[in-house]
Amino acid sequence: MTVTSNSLRSFAGGILIATSLIGAVYLFGPSEASSTGKEEPAEVQKLTEDEMVKKLTSKGYVIHTEDQWNKQLKALNENQEEKASDKKDDGKVVYKTMLTVSTGMTSIDVGNALEQANIIKDGLDFYKEVEKRGLENELRPGTFDVESGMTTDEIISAIFK
User: pLDDT value at position 63?
Assistant: First the structure.
């Protein structure tokens, strides 16, 4: 196909006319988009605040004002602070655990388990204390209740023969 100057001018003229029409519609057309014709039902548009609350609560939603919400948050924080203070003994948190000693465990294993449960600070120090007393081979299999408030002597006497 050969492109002649007349066909090129005709093509350029067509583009110029199309661009002019699009620009005219853009500049002089409606300033807002028209509706699609689908409007919300009249009952949704005319609901009062009380009616909205009733509808939402009937469907299982809980509606609070900002003041009500803040009061509940405050009460929750106070409740959590009370529970935290109940868990403390003289300002110190007491951890409790049930330690299960099985056959084949060593005193190092017991010390590490007690350290992970926050019952003692250092499992290696516990092992050294057991070794110093000569009880490393006297470990009793079983389940024992221990807590961080117990002394090392109490823990050793509970777990070892």
Answer: 83
